[in-house]
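Fold this sequence, please.
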Amino acid sequence: DDKTALRLHRQVMRLIQLVADLRESLDTAAPASSSARVPVHPLSILSEALANMAPRFAQAGLTLEHGGVDLLSTHTPAPLVLGDSQQLHQVFLNLLENSLRYTDAGGLLRIAASVLPPADGAPQLQVQLDDSAPGVPAHELPRIFDRLYRAESSRNRDHGGSGLGLAICRAIVLAHGGTLTAEPSPLGGLRITLQLPLLDNPS
């Protein structure tokens, strides 16, 4: 009947999306071609992703704070990285989508950005995303970037996630010479920390 057909259609569409996500996670695991990388302004890319997602956060009843990103993006010279702007945009969208899906209504996502002085090598751009409850149990944190892994916790409700969004993020960030880590957030949810090596930007 029509009801069964609709349910089957939805399941097929989810399988199609799963295959697409899996293919993307495999593609991005390989280092990006050097010809695809150019100097880009990652905070401008992040601001674009925030503008795209802001209406959905508002609709979900979530507060989105990114004053720290806006402030750093106005600094001269602006942070500059060697990267693929489309892939970095995908990283930011996926991270925002993760918080949107797994933060309780009435909650908060706070995004901060800073430049870390060089320890060994280039200075680093650091972007931190802190969301409010629910959190992820400590024993599950090391696995949340694994392909197809979905935490057995209150953040794993029936939102239709494929378990590939964070894996794709990590593959892209590693290919850009950066790091992506997770830990408990002081807001009660999850803290994601992204670091990317910066280029010298004298302008």
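The radius of gyration is 18 Å. The mean pLDDT is 85.
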